[in-house]
Design a protein that fits this description.
Elements (H helix, E strand, L loop, with lengths): L27 E10 L15 H7 L11 H4 L17 H18 L11 E5 L3 H14 L32 H8 L5 H5 L2 H11 L32 E5 L2 E4 L1 H17 L10 H18 L2 H24 L21 E6 L1 H11 L18 E8 L12 H5 L23 E9 L2 H6 L9 E7 L10 E3 L1
Parallel strand pairs: 1-5, 2-5
Antiparallel strand pairs: 1-6, 3-4, 6-7, 7-8, 8-9
Helix pairs in contact: 3-4, 7-9, 8-9, 10-11
Length: 472
């Protein structure tokens, strides 16, 4: 099914019911769609697939700072070689934490709703190790006996597009647009907001070797009078243009190490003696600032709309209770049937942030930065239907099922839909669900009392989200 990247942005608020009279859906919760970030992974290199000793020698001059490179220490190893270097794969600890979330969905969040058969659950994952294993972890926690449940990874590339495959019609955000966003030809004004955090990372690393601050045009000087070191703030700015790295500069380098520290701490590894867990979490503000920059509205529209359109079509298929017609050719396709009750997407943090921008969402969860797409964090979409005029049985609300606190002001009064036509009976509730930083680090079992919620109600006519409160 070929889904346009930009033409369907409002589709979630316009669930067409052309043939709804052919089937009258039951009221209450109809379908749950989970858009999840993969679990805790190992670090990338700085512009490469894996980090290296040479990289750390350039940036980390602090002899007392241990940033482990061992794949075995991280839990990403796939060989017996003790010298294997960590790579950005799902860690064993990350698998465990996501599996705990699957069990939480089954035992607490949707205990009564998920009494369905294995066939009524379906999953898509990006075609890489960390997303595939994240889906397997969640599904194994959700339905331990459904061993045949595996995610679809074939022809999902455009579904989980982040910007790695730009086209003429959907390009990566241009340099001119980036400069308009930052207000300069670099990120100097962005850095003003996080200067304190960058300085703390710089002090921790005791950054850097002089070669880090030299440019290709200006080789490192050998004069003994020249300084043998530089710092993060002295790194020159170079335009790079990649979807994940517009500039190579102070921000990109500080971002790299702030994320490394976060992943290391969430993976339940030893913390640097100079930093508390709380301090590492606060330094993650650097990474969130970088993510906000690269998941801007241009990139969100160009690369996030296919996933949102696929999600929307999945809702519509459930409402219509018949397969939607799809075009032939490369995917993504709607491979789940109309009977699907739970649909799971194993994606990336960028994918969640693209959808966040397209739907104008905000979420706040205790212990995390605003709208932070934490490892294993999930946007949970619920499709509901109110009773028809001829079928006014009452169904307990999802909040009643979970004993959630009220979110206060909502954007749309569900009660007004009870006596309206079928086209208005369907609405979507949206939550962001995540374990706390401590729960991820410790791998704790999750219960209805200890998972963090951010909740908002989506008006399917206006596609706006007003209320975001932390529910504990």
């Amino acid at each position: 099914m070929k889904l346009g990247r930009a033409a369907t942005l409002l589709a979630l608020g316009m669930l067409s019911l052309v043939n709804a009279a052919m089937y009258t859906p039951d009221s209450g919760l109809r379908q749950v769609i989970v858009l999840s970030r993969h679990g805790v992974r190992g670090p990338y290199g700085l512009g490469t697939e894996s980090p290296s000793e040479d990289l750390l020698k350039q940036y980390v001059l602090n002899p007392n700072l241990n940033l482990p490179l061992s794949a075995n220490a991280w839990g990403t190893s796939e060989t017996e070689d003790p010298a294997e270097i960590v790579s950005p794969k799902l860690t064993k600890h990350g698998f465990h934490v996501v599996k705990q979330m699957g069990a939480y969905f089954r035992d607490h969040l949707y205990e009564e709703f998920l009494n369905a058969t294995c066939e009524e659950t379906f999953a898509y994952a990006d075609n890489n190790q960390r997303d595939n294993l994240t889906a397997l972890a969640f599904l194994s926690g959700l339905y331990p006996l459904c061993t045949e449940l595996v995610p679809i990874t074939k022809e999902t590339q455009s579904l989980f597009e982040q910007g790695q495959d730009p086209t003429a019609n959907c390009p990566v955000c241009s340099r001119a647009v980036y400069e308009g966003i930052t207000g300069s030809n670099d990120t100097r004004f962005v850095l003003q907001e996080i200067q304190e955090e960058v300085a703390e990372v710089n002090e921790l690393l005791q950054c850097c070797a002089a070669s880090v601050c030299s440019t290709d045009e200006e080789p490192e000087k050998s004069d003994s009078t020249e300084s043998a070191t530089c710092d993060l703030f002295g790194i020159p700015t170079q335009w790079n243009g990649a979807f994940y790295l517009p500039w190579k500069d102070t921000l990109s380098n500080a971002d790299y190490f702030s994320e490394w520290l976060l992943l290391q701490s969430l993976n339940n590894m030893s913390l640097p003696s100079q930093l508390s867990f709380e301090k590492i979490l606060s330094l993650a503000r650097i990474h969130e600032t970088h993510m906000d920059l690269i998941t801007n509205e241009v990139n969100s529209a160009n690369f996030g709309a296919t996933l949102l359109a696929h999600l929307t079509a999945s809702f519509e298929q459930n409402i219509m209770q018949k397969p939607l017609p799809v075009a032939k050719g490369e995917g993504p396709h709607l491979l789940q049937g109309p009977e699907n009750r739970l649909l799971y997407y194993a994606a990336h943090d960028i994918n969640l942030l693209y959808v966040r921008n397209l739907l104008r969402l905000q979420w706040h969860t205790k212990g995390w930065h605003p709208h932070q797409p934490v490892p294993g964090g999930m946007l949970v979409f619920e499709l509901h239907a109110t009773p028809t005029k001829s079928n006014k049985q009452t169904s307990p609300t999802t909040s009643e099922f979970r004993n959630l606190k009220s979110t206060g002001r909502v954007s749309w009064d569900v009660e007004v839909a009870v006596d309206t036509e079928d086209a208005s009976r369907f609405y979507v509730k949206l939550y962001f669900v995540a374990a706390s930083p401590e729960q991820i680090r410790n791998g704790d079992e999750l219960s209805s009392e200890n998972v963090r919620y951010s909740s908002c109600y989506v008006n399917p006519r206006q596609l706006t989200c007003f209320v975001v409160l932390c529910l504990e």
